[in-house]
Amino acid sequence: MTVITVIAASLVIDGAIVVLYVVTDQKIRLGLMALFTTIFAASLAVMTDGRRTDIILATAACAAVLVVFVSQGLPATTCAG
User: Cβ(56)–Cβ(62) under 8 Å?
Assistant: First the structure.
Protein backbone atom coordinates (compact mmCIF):
# COMPACT_ATOMS: atom_id res chain seq x y z
CA MET A 1 0.00 0.00 0.00
CA THR A 2 2.92 2.38 0.69
CA VAL A 3 4.14 2.18 -2.89
CA ILE A 4 0.67 2.92 -4.24
CA THR A 5 0.31 5.88 -1.90
CA VAL A 6 3.64 7.36 -2.92
CA ILE A 7 2.89 6.91 -6.62
CA ALA A 8 -0.59 8.42 -6.24
CA ALA A 9 0.72 11.46 -4.35
CA SER A 10 3.47 11.92 -6.91
CA LEU A 11 1.00 11.70 -9.79
CA VAL A 12 -1.22 14.34 -8.21
CA ILE A 13 1.70 16.76 -7.93
CA ASP A 14 3.06 15.92 -11.39
CA GLY A 15 -0.40 16.24 -12.91
CA ALA A 16 -0.91 19.59 -11.21
CA ILE A 17 2.38 20.93 -12.57
CA VAL A 18 1.57 19.80 -16.12
CA VAL A 19 -1.94 21.27 -16.02
CA LEU A 20 -0.74 24.54 -14.46
CA TYR A 21 1.94 24.79 -17.14
CA VAL A 22 -0.65 24.50 -19.91
CA VAL A 23 -3.27 26.83 -18.41
CA THR A 24 -2.36 30.53 -18.71
CA ASP A 25 -5.33 32.28 -17.09
CA GLN A 26 -4.31 33.19 -13.54
CA LYS A 27 -7.80 32.87 -12.04
CA ILE A 28 -8.21 29.40 -13.45
CA ARG A 29 -4.71 28.49 -12.25
CA LEU A 30 -5.60 29.53 -8.69
CA GLY A 31 -8.76 27.44 -8.80
CA LEU A 32 -6.81 24.47 -10.15
CA MET A 33 -4.21 24.88 -7.41
CA ALA A 34 -6.97 24.69 -4.81
CA LEU A 35 -8.45 21.64 -6.54
CA PHE A 36 -5.16 19.77 -6.78
CA THR A 37 -4.25 20.62 -3.20
CA THR A 38 -7.61 19.28 -2.04
CA ILE A 39 -7.16 16.11 -4.08
CA PHE A 40 -3.68 15.67 -2.60
CA ALA A 41 -4.95 16.08 0.97
CA ALA A 42 -7.92 13.78 0.40
CA SER A 43 -5.73 11.08 -1.15
CA LEU A 44 -3.37 11.21 1.83
CA ALA A 45 -6.26 11.05 4.27
CA VAL A 46 -7.78 8.03 2.52
CA MET A 47 -4.62 6.11 1.61
CA THR A 48 -2.55 6.59 4.76
CA ASP A 49 -2.96 6.27 8.47
CA GLY A 50 -1.06 9.50 9.01
CA ARG A 51 -1.98 11.87 11.77
CA ARG A 52 -3.92 14.98 10.89
CA THR A 53 -0.85 17.10 11.56
CA ASP A 54 1.23 15.08 9.10
CA ILE A 55 -1.40 15.38 6.39
CA ILE A 56 -1.71 19.13 6.93
CA LEU A 57 2.07 19.59 6.77
CA ALA A 58 2.36 17.51 3.58
CA THR A 59 -0.53 19.44 2.02
CA ALA A 60 1.07 22.77 2.93
CA ALA A 61 4.32 21.62 1.31
CA CYS A 62 2.42 20.58 -1.82
CA ALA A 63 0.65 23.94 -1.98
CA ALA A 64 3.97 25.75 -1.52
CA VAL A 65 5.49 23.86 -4.45
CA LEU A 66 2.53 24.76 -6.66
CA VAL A 67 2.64 28.42 -5.61
CA VAL A 68 6.35 28.67 -6.42
CA PHE A 69 5.81 26.94 -9.75
CA VAL A 70 2.98 29.27 -10.75
CA SER A 71 4.73 32.42 -9.51
CA GLN A 72 7.80 31.68 -11.64
CA GLY A 73 5.70 32.31 -14.73
CA LEU A 74 4.38 35.69 -13.60
CA PRO A 75 5.86 38.95 -14.88
CA ALA A 76 7.97 40.82 -12.30
CA THR A 77 5.58 43.79 -12.35
CA THR A 78 2.67 41.60 -11.26
CA CYS A 79 4.59 40.28 -8.26
CA ALA A 80 5.94 43.68 -7.25
CA GLY A 81 2.84 45.64 -7.30
Answer: no
